[in-house]
Amino acid sequence: MIDDIPPEHLRYAQWLHWSGWLGLAVLVGAFAVYATGLVPPVIRLESLPELWKLSSQDFLQLHGLEGGWHWIRRLDRSDMLSVLAIAILAGCSALPLLAVTPIYLRRGDRTYAALCVLVVAVLVLAASGVISTGH
Amino acid sequence: MVDVIASLLQRILATAALPTRRSGARDSAVATSGMKWAEIACAVIALALPSFAEAATVDATDAAAVAWWVWPLALFVVCFFLGIIAVPAGVGGGVLFVPLVSGFFPFHLDYVRGAGLLVALSSALAAGPSLLRAGLANMRVALPLALIASFSSMLGALLGLALPASVVRIALGVAILGIVAVMLLAKKSEHPDVPSSDRLATLLGMHGVFTDRASGQKVEWRLHRTPHGLVLFFAIGVLAGMFGLGAGWANVPALNLVMGAPLKVAAGSSSFILSLVDSSAAWIYLNNGAVLPIIAAPSVIGMMLGAKIGARLLTVLKASVIRRLVIGMLVFAGGRALMVGLGIGG
Fold first, then answer.
1. 129-158 in B: which are within 8 Å (CB) of A?
2. Distances from the Cα of B123 to the Cαs of B14, B27, B119, B274, in angstroms?
3. How far apart are CA B237 and CA B161, in angstroms?
């Protein structure tokens, strides 16, 4: 059965398997640290019930936070560590695409190699923070 | 009104408690046990919904009296049970998560949608590798469509975050009821008849062979109406990004009924597409502060754990019964979203 499966599918599956589980494991670990209070967060857990009713725009303004990658400067805080874990999970799909691109190129399939790169470019654009609602 | 609907759901549960397969004493015991798990899952959600609806309307001063961990724990439990029933019902986690959580938990819609995308993404990440290895997800089909849809999901996310919450709720309510209509009315074709591929599908090599493990047969397939499919997937991406839903409910009919992919290839490729579409939309929500770890993490973890159990129940449950119960819940949640958006309900 496995002989019928194109090699790019198998490589993508392998990379996705490991990156997905890594993302989930990091999320579980980071959230455990956050919820147990082992590392202090930027925003106190006790104040969250008042804050999660606010829109994201109001939330950011209230705390003087910026959008985008502001959280990367506060990785010593548990809530920002959890955001990092979420970012890893959201970025899981990019690496497998880059991993299969050489397979397409070796086969001379430039169209699908280009498609892989273009999808990664879209993900990078989304992740970059360049596109925002202007909050 | 909420109590009436909840009691109706409970009656449906009671009458839906039917034995499943009777192929043997052991299978029957396993099936009955599995059905009980699913009944418990639906009962927990149905019984909890009215209480959540009432509690969620507590104003901000009273909210301070609720310990911070209560709602995230409740979210984890509900997502766990959603994960159990989502797989047998054949729906993704996102399409259940957003309407139910936005309607019955006190979180702002922005965070619910951000978490919904991550929930749907996690499910797709978990299922993707096995679908690819089994030949049920096809990259030649999925990549062009994923490129279009992942770009448009960014636009949908931006639009959804820019619009007032009340407008999004109304649109969400309409969308959920539309999804219910699709689930009820859309036919499925195991192996659509595609006389010939269109030019674009031929150029992109959108064809293949998969082995149907149920019958042991090799099935050759090809696609058509590719331009129509690209337009559809652009729209699907916008909806997915705007509402924080996974797009499986639309991907599969689009691939199967419009483009002519075999049903199993459509379902498998849909998961692959989802992982890319929801990733790009999730980043927009993350970069706009619309992902709160205290909401996203228990949702993802609860749903993933529940789905593990749900996948094991898949072979023993009567999926049609679970599907009817899930459709009932979606009608309830969609109606509530409409009512709240229009300022009718609390």
1. 129-130, 132-133, 135, 137-140, 143-144, 146-147, 150-151, 154, 158
2. 30, 28, 6, 9
3. 15
A37 in contact with B at a CB cutoff of 8 Å?
A: no
- Predicted local confidence at residue B5, as pLDDT: 42
Look at B211 and A4 and tell me if their CB atoms are within 8 Å: yes
Torsion of CA B224, B227, B231, B237, to 10 degrees: 60
**CB contact (8 A) between residue A126 and residue B284:** yes
Sequence ranges of the domains in chain A: 2-91
Specify the length of chain B in residues. Answer: 346
Structure tokens at B80: 């766990």
Question: Quick one: pLDDT band at residue B273, thresholds 50, 70, 90?
Answer: very high
What pLDDT is recorded for position B291?
A: 95
ipTM comes to 0.94
The pTM (predicted TM-score) of the whole model is: 0.85
Rounded CA-CA distance A91/A76 in Å is 21
Give the pairing type, strands B207-212 and B217-222.
Answer: antiparallel
Give the Cα separation of B102 and B56 in Å (integer): 10
Q: Which two structure tokens, joined as six digits, stand for A18?
A: 């490991």
Please name the helix (run of DSSP H) or strand (run of DSSP E) that holds residue B208, with its range, or none: strand B207-212
Q: Which residues of B touch A135 (CB under 8 A)?
A: 288-289
